Amino acid sequence: MSGHSKWATIKHKKGALDAKRGKIFTRLIKEISMAAKSGGDVEKNPRLRTAVTAAKAENMPGENIKRAIQRGTGELPGVSYEEITFEGYGPGGVAILVEVSTDNRNRTVSEIRQAFTKNHGNMGESGSVAYMFSKKGTIAVPKSAISEDDLMNIVLENGGDDLTDEGENFEVLTAPAAYEQVLEAIKAKGITPEASSLAMVPANYIKLEGSNANQMIRLLEALEDQDDVQNVYSNFDIDEKELEKVTQG
Fold first, then answer.
1. How many whole angstroms separate alpha carbon 46 and alpha carbon 28?
2. Are 11 and 17 in contact (CB under 8 A)?
3. Whether residue 93 has pLDDT greater than 50
4. What's the pLDDT tens digit per position in 145-203?
5. What is the DSSP string of 28-56?
6. What is the 8-class DSSP label of residue 77?
7. pLDDT single digits (tens) 191-231
């Protein structure tokens, strides 16, 4: 997982997510509403189930979750969102996917393009980088919580794909269909993952150093600060110590 996963884990540790709790709730509510368009039954809708689990992990009140589902199914009035994925390039030629939910396509296109342009990146055509990514379940497990052999056994027994060493954490990869089962099996051992999500995972990575690394983090921050952005994925890899350095403060 390298770049994006380490970046997400470090943000989590630094408490940056808590500082933006209002924005996190907004994004989660959008995702729940979008997912509920396919049906409001959590047991029958995997995307909705994943969204609700993520909301509960952030201590979102149950009433908020219920209203978001009802807006998605049409039981309550609400804004109609459109899902769009933008593609582009960052410093050093890294590939970037930006997933948004918006009620105003023109505004969002302008804001995303501006974020790229002002931060040493540029927008690409549809299909320009998407082929480099595939949807996977990703689970970051602290090395202090379990041995590599024991974790690998859990992963394989529950249909997971792979396990990699990412510094302080093991990174578990699964097919989307196996994600929930593997995650629950890990939690059943009393382990709390550092981070877990369904994500777009790149086939390979580009190593960034120095100014390119710094500029890439600034570009990611600029994109993630946009109100309509739900997720940002990239195929960058940055040395963990350097990543810590450029994310200080």
1. 15
2. yes
3. yes
4. 999 999 999 999 999 998 988 888 899 999 999 998 999 999 999 998 888 888 898 98
5. HHHHHHHHHTT-S-TTT-HHHHHHHHHHH
6. -
7. 988 888 888 989 889 999 889 988 998 999 899 888 899 99
Q: Tell me the helix, strand and coil percentages in the chain, rounded to 5.
A: 50, 25, 25
Backbone angles phi, psi at 12, to 5 degrees: -60, -45
Provide CB contacts within 8 A for 65, sequence distance 6+: 32, 52, 55, 56
Virtual CA dihedral for 93, 83, 100, 204, nearest 10 degrees?
Answer: -30
Q: Which of 171, 193, 155 is nearest to 240 (CA)?
A: 171
Taking the CA atoms of the chain, what radius of gyration do you get in angstroms? 18
**175 contacts 159 by C-beta, under 8 angstroms:** yes
Name the strand (E) or helix (H) holding 99: strand 95-102
Residues 6+ apart with CB under 8 A from 105: 82, 84
